[in-house]
Amino acid sequence: MKKFSLLTMLSLVLMMAASSSAWAGEDVLDTGNNAWILVSASLVLLMSPGLAFFYGGMCSSKNIINMLMMVFMSMAVISVQWVFWGYSLSFGEDCGNFIGSLAKAGLRGITPDTLSGTIPEYTFLAFQATFAIITVGLIMGAVEGRMKFSAFLIFIPLWATAVYDPVCHWVWGGGFLQAWAVLDFAGGTVVHINSGAAALALVILLGKRKKQNIRPPCNVPMVLLGTGLLWFGWFGFNAGSELASDGRAAFAWVITNSSAATAAFVWMVCEWIHRKKPTLIGAASGAVAGLVAITPASGFVGPLGAIQIGIMAGVGCYFASMKLKALFGYDDALDVVGVHGIGGTIGAFATGLYCTKMVMGPDGVDGLFIGWGMEGFKQLGLQCIGFLISWSYAFSVTMIIGLFLKYTIGLRTAETQEDTGLDITQHGEIGYHLEMESTSTLKVPAGH
Question: What is the largest CA-CA distance in the chain?
């Protein structure tokens, strides 16, 4: 008995020594969490080619290569910008609650063993890099057929540094919106409002396309392929934002799917009533609108709240794309403002309505439609403050960057280039070779 007691005590002492770092509050690597976030980062990166297909299919056939190139180059340029200074400005040591420092520029001081919570910091920064990449790509759908490719390449790092990185820091990196407890689980403000506001600024500066250059989508099946890739990747976007492989990540997966499915159906019904025909592009746009709107709320609301957000997104984004654009006269070619700007705003607002402690835990907050108390009113007010600040900042700074480019290297392509198409004039290639061979040149086998 004594021998057993001594062995038991020795085992307990060894266990306590092994776990002393955890008891002291130090981060401990969780390989399951690390594997899930690496997969999630890959899913979100796949969203960028998905976005290229989604946008490319909706373009004019003479501008499809240009659109694919702009989204693809967003991956290339932002990946490098993120390593040099983007990550440090977004998640480095706080500088006055506005932006991070350059202490981690070039990923200085981050080793393979450096942890961020229960995952390596390299895993965290890789995951966050994919968010920055797709945010820039989203903007480009608004400017189809009229922005100089050279101006676009300069715009990317300028915009990411001056707009994306600060707003990311405000919400997720220790900035003032995070300190105020403005809720954004996976990027409604950081990604979608940011890109929607920037898109609006750019199309105002660029001006409208000529009517003869506004053409039908060149490849509708490609749009559906892009939508499928976006929907698939969005599970990494939202469920991955839990930064752990746990029940809340699974919950976010279901919430995301529910909102997207609801909005796809609701957009189709709105279109059927309003325009007498349900279209595949409409259903696809509705699915994306639902994904956008649920993004800020995906880790905070319940299943019925997600479905209600999907309804709000389907109706709100449809009429923003069909009516708001016509009312104000801006030429947003692929409805970035209507789907991402308005969808992100709907999601940020609805988070204050439907967030619940049932999902967030006892330290969370019940939204206005859940608790019906002052706590909900306060959270809704904070959500409104957050998206208004983000809209104002992103729009204003994008206008400044756009004006700088307009009066230096030029922002818009020449009229003759737009008429010919940007694929030939900017890149020297075309998306579709449709030449037909003459039957007189065909070799007919003997005896036929």
Answer: 103
For 202-259, how does the pLDDT look when each residue is reduced to its tens digit (9 = 90+)? 999 999 999 999 999 999 999 999 999 999 999 999 999 999 999 999 999 999 999 9
Distance from C-alpha of 55 to C-alpha of 44, rounded to nearest angstrom: 17
pLDDT digits (tens, 9 = 90+) for 362-397: 999 999 999 898 999 999 999 999 999 999 999 999
Backbone angles phi and psi of 60, in degrees to 5: -65, 150
3-state secondary structure of 301: strand
CA 66 vs. chain centroid, Å, equals 21
Q: Are 104 and 171 in contact (CB under 8 A)?
A: no
> Considering only CA atoms, which of 209, 219, 258, 269 is closest in space to residue 235?
258
Q: How many Å apart are CA 149 and CA 132, to the nearest integer?
A: 20
On whether the CB atoms of residues 312 and 289 are closer than 8 A, the answer is no
Q: Count the Cβ atoms, other than its own, within 10 Å of residue 98.
A: 11
CA atoms within 13 A on the CB side of 172: 26
Supply the DSSP string of 148-214, one letter for each residue.
Answer: -HHHHHHHHHHHIIIIIHHHHHHHHSS-HHHHTT---SSSIIIIIIHHHHHHHHHHHHH-PPPGGG-
Whole-number Å distance between alpha carbons of 190 and 314: 21
CA distance 355 to 88: 31
For residues 227 and 247, what is the distance between their CA atoms, to the nearest angstrom? 26
